[in-house]
Design goal:
It is globular, with a radius of gyration of 15 Å. 13% of the residues are buried. Strand 1 and strand 2 form a beta hairpin. The chain contains no helices and five strands. The protein has a three-stranded antiparallel β-sheet, with no helix packed on it. With 75 residues, it is mostly beta strands.
Length: 75
């Protein structure tokens, strides 16, 4: 039996958590799988592609919003 290498996880200050892939992410809303060599997982809750990061954390003025939040806002 071959020994498995430990999974590499790198938190990025004010950014996502980088995880060496492939990964399977289990959330209350379902499962997301990625076979990429590195996967960025949203740590701020702003991503419209949650739980994957879409770089929304770069917009510091943007409100914290999950992908299932109402995009229409108050009118």
């Amino acid at each position: 039996m071959t020994e498995q290498r430990p999974r590499v996880v790198q938190p990025v200050r004010n950014g996502p958590v980088l995880v060496a892939g492939p990964v399977r992410i289990e959330t209350p809303d379902g499962v997301v799988e990625s076979d990429r060599f590195m996967v960025a997982i949203c740590a701020c809750g702003r991503s419209r592609n949650y739980p994957l990061c879409d770089t929304s954390h770069r917009r510091r003025d943007a409100p914290h919003r999950r992908a299932d939040a109402d995009p229409g806002g108050d009118t």
